[in-house]
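Figure-free illustration: sequence to structure, shown twice.
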Amino acid sequence: MDTGCRKWQIGGFLFTSAMGPLLHFAYGWSGENPVVGAFSAVNESTWEHMKLLFVPLLLTALAAALFGGRCRGCWTAKLAGALAGLLLIPLLYYGYTGALGVQIDWVDMAIFFVAAAAAFLLEGHLTEHLSVRNGPLQAVAAAGFAAMAVLFVWYTYAPPHLPAFLDPLTGTYGI
């Protein structure tokens, strides 16, 4: 991988690693502003914790698309990385809580960083090895990111009544 692209990968991981935890508290810090809730966690549900990863991933993808120079990126690689990271959060969370029967805050935090690292490692690997950088597949992947953004916002205000959307502390869904 070109060193410029590697810098984008490292910068994206560092940005995501800093921004995700801040977004965990942004809704509360804003006085529970529903606009802030669109892009930050509004409760302790697994879905809202996935949003903490998605929003910075989306922002880094958009920044790379606009300012990335030679590393404008491959949307398919970015989408694959995002999906891998997003899937890891519930898999690891429900895996360890189901196996141990307890929830541990520091493990939950570690899961976020592992998911972020996995997302950027996969994206970097695919960016280096994928030959398709333009064309319809890229447009479909970019549209996939847009669709995911819409779902994250929509499900903040109108979440389905499924376990991943349930706040285990309050027994409520969404805002």
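We now fold a second protein in the same way, so the two outputs can be compared directly.
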Amino acid sequence: MKLRTVCAAAAFACVGGWVQAGPVVTGSVDALTLANTIGGVGITISNPTLTYAGAATLPLPSGTFTGGGTTVGFSEGIVLTNGTIGCVPGPNNASGCGLERSFVADNSGVFDRTTLAFDFSSDTGKVFFRYVFGSEEYTQFVDSEFNDAFQLLLNGVNIAQLPGGGGEVSINNVNCGSNSAYYRNNVDTDNGDEDNNNCATLGLDIQYDGLTTILTASADVIAGASNRFEFTIFDRGDSALDSAVFIEKGSFSGEDPNPMPEPGSLLLAAVALAGAGALRRRST
């Protein structure tokens, strides 16, 4: 059985002298601040709450961040962790960063859980948001009981799913060996890990050993009606080693953040390119 070590309960030994590297995180447990940061066009948010395990004296589990463009994939947003925001900044030089906020599982077998919840309505009858899941559980604990996950419950239904019916966003379902198109490895392949460690490291300036690509969740709702959202990140199996979800600023929106160009726009673009090519040929 592998030893699951946690780097410094207070997390300061994890961050040490490199707190300025990678994403810059500002700790916050203010639910209104967190909800308003991700709120976008066509969405009205109300009644936000943030719940998390452990004493109020522990390091904060959530906050806002900047400077995530080359690591997370988008520059700004919020981060929710099942441990501490101290395990976010890079480089990836801790042997296992995490904060055990609680040592007792709840009735569903989940240990540390952080949840941002709120009511919302959509002017368009649609809702979208963009997110990235990352974890210290990679890659050693793939296909084990330590299967940390992120869920987005829209009126009780988890819409944080991989495209094409690929299943939930979790350690066991997104990794080097499963749904690898949505996985980014951030740990050396020669470090002795045995499980699913068959893809090269990207050397990202962030502490987590693996992250997903940017994923987009979407759903249809009744325009103007009240709905309930719950963003939840949690430990499964035990409370050691951290995982996190990053949600892009302003992307919780009634409009698609990745719209496809209209067919007419594509045609105009093709005509413009063809014209430019003709001009270049004439000038030579």
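Summary for the second example: The chain has one domain: 12-259.
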